[in-house]
Amino acid sequence: MTTVTTTNPGDLLAAELLESIVDKHVRITKSKAEMLALIRSFEELGLAQFAGARTTAQVLQRRLGMSESSAYEYVHVAMRLGMYPLLEAEFMEGRLSYSVVRLLLKYITEDNEAELVQLALDLGYSELEIALQRYGGGGAGEEEPERYLRLGIADNGDVKFWGRLNPIDGAALMAALKLGEIAFYGLDQLTPGEGGQLTEEEIDAAIEEVASDQSNATDARPARQTASGFGLPIGRALLSSLMGMVHMVRAHPVSPLQVPAAHVNIVMTEDGRAYLPNNLGVPSSAIANVAANAALRYNIVDAEGLIIKTGRQFRLATPSQVNALVVMWGMQCAAPGCRHSRFLEMHHIDEWANGGMTDVGNLLPLCSACHSLVTDGYIRIEKDGSDLHFIYRDGTRYVSHNYSLPRRDDSAVTLAEYEALVDEELAAAQRTPRSNSATTRWQ
Question: Ranges for the HNH nuclease domain (predicted)?
Answer without folding.
Answer: 320-372
